[in-house]
Structures are given as structure tokens and as C-alpha cells.
Amino acid sequence: MSDLAFPRLVIAGTSSGVGKTTVTVALARALRARGLRVALFKCGPDYLDPTYHARAIDAPSQNLDGWMMGHDAVRATFAHAARDADISLIEGVMGLYDGASPTGEEGSTAEIAKWLDAPVVLVVDAGGMARSIAALVGGYASFDPKLHVAAAVANRVGSRGHLDLLRRALRTPPILGGFPRDPEHAFAERHLGLRTADDSSLPSSLLDHWAEQASEWFSLDALLALATSAPSLTIESEIRGGGAARVGASAGPRIAIARDAAFHFYYADNLRRLESLGAELVPFSPVSETALPDADGVYLGGGYPEVHAAALSANAAMRGAIAAFAQAGGPIYAECGGLMYLTQAIVTTDGHRHPMVGLVPTEARMCGKLQALGYVEVETQTKTILGGAGSRFRGHQFRYSELDPEPPPSIERVYSLRRRRGDETTREGFRIGNVVASYVHAHWASNPRIAASFVESCASHRKARTP
Description:
The chain is α/β, with parallel strands linked by helices. It is built from 14 helices and 25 strands. Strands 12-10-13-15-24-23-22-19-20-25 form a ten-stranded mixed beta sheet. It has a seven-stranded parallel beta sheet with strand order 4-3-5-2-6-7-8, with helices on both faces. The model is unreliable at 190-194 and 239-245 (pLDDT under 50).
């Protein structure tokens, strides 16, 4: 147990869509230009905003989710990622007090801010607003006396005169910055939120533009002082892989992890847990490479395989290599987009059918509207590569596809899946040999033994195939 100083700010919003990601990325980039080391975090299960964070600081962003991870894992994950940073910025989710319940703080930005004892900077869409900003921010600041709403940022202001007017209207907490309306440089959107950040959707010139805007329009010194004023955190322990002995580096299993434009949705903490257990993660591209790397297991994360369905389908060599690896007893863990890739085909919204790996006897059909969104809790019904029967963990679903037709009864469903809201359970999690494929994005902080079991399964396969 130790008391550690972590300069930090939570960048929260009055609601979704007020510009939290723009403010977070702009601040991070501007602070890096000053030579500071910045660590970035995202509240909630979101995969997209962290890709913007990663582009801004050239390093992974960590998710901090109260419901999936729990108090101790949130603090330990934060401490591990922030340990070498001069300042940490934690971007909120939805509005400051929005979460898993309309009557409690579970799953909210406010919950994470209190767990981390972090000052909150509230982002407000101030377009068309004057004195009302005092009532709005004052309400947020007084709603929970245990939360420290320390400053505000006024987004989409009309001019410098408008920003000065807002500052006169709201004396406490102070407004420490604002952005003018700038639709020309707004981030592109996709599926209930931002698009995945890459060179085309978020070029360096756009990042530099927002950094310059932050340097010109924000009180960076005041924000740094506010971050430094955050009290020390008492961190009880560093949460590792979950009780399994670390495999020696010389004998650690190699896990091939799909990382390209089609597959890139991974919780950074999940990957760290695998590595902490001795696994070597070997990235590969199902889109462009024709052979699997030499590996003892495969991890197929989520992403946008439907966008790259034609290229994935055309790469018959890789599809065949993954099928052969599974048929040889190789452990494969697939989530959401990974599940879609393992089906017989992805059918895009234009009706085109693109053949895939073919391990799961069904097709993934893209739909015009959201098919599932929300937290889930999983209990395994039998032993799998993720552990014994009765293993529980938490995760999240976010998908626009469905399986059509339903896989036949002969395909084992090894998950009993319960939604966060309601008591209804469904069977999911398709197992074919040592393959487990599901629509659930799991966070292994909810049960670190899951990561340990997957590493152990890969190590066992390595041993079995070694002469």
C-alpha cells in the first residue's frame, strides 16, 4: 500500500455530444507540445474515443469502467498507466451523472471521479447561452457535494466577447477555456459516436489544429495547477493476471492478435494482463497477411469487419490458416467482430455475401439499426479455454449485426448471458473445439482468472504441439 501523487483531471460533460473528446484530445496534444508526458483514460466501455486518445499522444488509452472493473481494478489500472505521466486526463462518458441507473451513480463519470478523487472540468455547449451557464454549471456543481466540479469549459462559443460574457456570468467554478464554433474541423461521426481514428479520419494536421486552439483559448497553466492540486491516492495493490503463476519468459505462449483496420477493439488492460502472465502478443493482419504468425493461440477482437468484408473474404489464405489452426486444436478467442469473421459469411447492408472463415455455421448479417447495446454478465456452463464451468465475468455489447440463421443446436452455447437490466438470461458463446466466439466484449478485470486460463490454454497447446 502506498500514497502516490497523480496530477489528474476528469473531463466531463453536461451530456453526450458537447465536445468532451475534442477538449480531451486538444488539451493532451497542447500539453505534449509543452514537453509534458500525458496519460489518457476513457470512462465506460467505449472503444472509439480511445483511438482518438491514442492518436493524440501516440500511446494506448485505458478504459475505466466502474461496473465491469470495480473500484480496486479501476484505481490499480489508473495507477499503473499514470505512474510515469506528468498529468492524466480522464474523459467522461455521456453526462457527468449518467450511468447504469437513473437513480444511482453506478457506471457514471461521477463515480470514477470520486473513486480517483479527481477534480472535474465540466464541458458545456455554450452556443446561444449567456447567464444561464451559471444556473447550469451551478446545478451540476451542487448536485453531489462529494464531487469536486472545479472548473468549466465553454464549447462552441460565438466569439471572444461571448466567452468573456460567460466568464462574467459564471464566477465559481471558473471557466478555464472555450472553443469557438468550428464545424470545418469537427471530428467525423459513425454509429452513435465518433469514427475510429486513423490517418484519414484524424490526420496530424487536425490534431495540431486543435492543440493550437487549446493553447490560444485555454488557461493551460490554471488547468495544470488544478490537476496538481488533486490529493495523493492510496493504491493498495497492482492487479495482475489473477492468481496464476507467471509463465517464464522463455516458455511463455505466443498469442497472435488481430490488429488492423478491421480488428482493433481491445481493452488495453486485457492485453496487459496477458503480457503480465508471460504471454507474448504477436500482431497480425487478417486483411493483408496471408499466413498466421507462429503462435499458440489466437485473439480476434472487435472492430469493423463489415467495412473490410471484401478484403477479408478475398484473403482466402488467411481464412484457411485460421480454420486449420482451429482444426488442429488451437485455442481461439473471438469477440464481436471476431465472431463475425469466424462465421460462414458476412452479409453487408447492400445484400452482398462475403465468405469468411466458416467455423461457426451461420452468417453475420448487417442490419440498418442497432441490434444490441449494454452491459452483460456471463457465467460459463462448462469448461472452456477461459476456465472451468461457473466462471463469471462482465462485458459489454455494441453491434449492428445479427446471426442469421441461428446456429444449429449441435453448436454448443457455453455462456449464460444476463443483461445488466433485467433478470432474463440467454445462451450464447459458441464453442467449436477450442474456439470460443461471442458478441460480448469482455473486460477481464471483472475476473482476472479468465485471462490466466486463456494463457494456460495457449501454453498447453504449445506443449502439445512441441515435439
